[in-house]
Amino acid sequence: MALIVILIGWWVLATPRQAPEPAGAAATAPLPAGSEVAVFAGGCFWCTEADFDKVPGVLATTSGYTGGKTAKPTYAEVSSHTTGHAEAVQVIFDPSQVSYRQLVDYFWRTIDPTVKDRQFCDIGTPYRTVIFATSAEQLQTAQASLAELEKTKPFAEPIVTQLRMADDFYPAEAEHQNYHQVNPKRYDFYRAGCGRDARLVQLWGALAKP
Q1: Which residue among 39, 76, 84, 208 sits deepest, i.e. has the most Cβ atoms within 10 Å of its Cβ?
Q2: Coil, strand or helix at 35
Q3: How far is the C-alpha of 110 from the C-alpha of 196, rounded, in Å?
Q4: Hey, is 198 helix, strand or coil?
Q5: What was the pLDDT predicted at 32?
Q6: What is the Cα–Cα distance from 51 to 168, expressed in whole angstroms?
């Protein structure tokens, strides 16, 4: 039995993260009255989406692609590292329950901000970390958060996460949405095997948000 479990785990980690067959892009969630939008690229969008789904005040999350040069890219195109897009998550939130600054501060502790063009076991530009501000005010807030983090971070390495204004956001294929809920076993194998949470604890200690 132990051997079977090991082989299943190896298969999950060795198989590229891809959908069986493209079924068209998912629709972006409608924007409720009074809500705001934030966009974060934190490596694998399955994991980023799962992390933000835990935050009170977050109303909806959508996995997708942004920051690239190709309109309406597919998962296969982005995974080829030729479109310039990053895997990202659009977060719709209620600012009366959670502020943008709180989301940014939370985001830092869900990623490894010390590496360029990779996150954990995923390597390449699609997995770079970026805060995509949707307004000048958001950009200023993210800059203030970064400045404070530079003074208080519990690790020595420099922070290389980018801060930039948001670009066109393209929702990923429907089968990538809510992946942690639809495919929990495969998601858990992937996240653990990729070393995400272990690295977060190594970096952030008790401040990690796995």
Answers
A1: 39
A2: coil
A3: 9
A4: helix
A5: 83
A6: 22
Q: What is the DSSP string of 124-165?
A: SGGG-EEEEESSHHHHHHHHHHHHHHHHH-SSSSPP--EEEE
Give residue 40's identity as a one-letter amino acid code.
F
The string of pLDDT tens digits covering residues 125-136 is: 999 999 999 999
Query: How high does pLDDT run on average in the chain?
Result: 89
The helix (H) or strand (E) run that includes residue 174 is none
Which residues of the chain have a pLDDT value below 70?
A: 1-30
Distance CA(18)–CA(15), nearest Å, equals 8
Contact 98, 141 (CB under 8 A): no
Residues 6+ apart with CB under 8 A from 203: 112, 114, 154, 155
Give the integer Cα–Cα distance in Å for 153 and 198.
17
Q: What are the tens digits of pLDDT across the range 23-70?
A: 345 555 568 888 999 999 999 999 999 999 999 999 999 999 999 999
Q: Could you confirm whether 194 is annotated as catalytic? A: no
User: Residue 93, SS3?
Assistant: strand
Residue 26 is predicted with a pLDDT of 52
Do 174 and 26 meet the contact criterion of CB atoms below 8 Å apart? yes
Q: Rounded to whole angstroms, how far apart are CA atoms 179 and 63?
A: 9
Give the model's pLDDT for residue 22.
39
Instruction: Count CA atoms within 13 Å of residue 166 on its CB side.
Output: 23
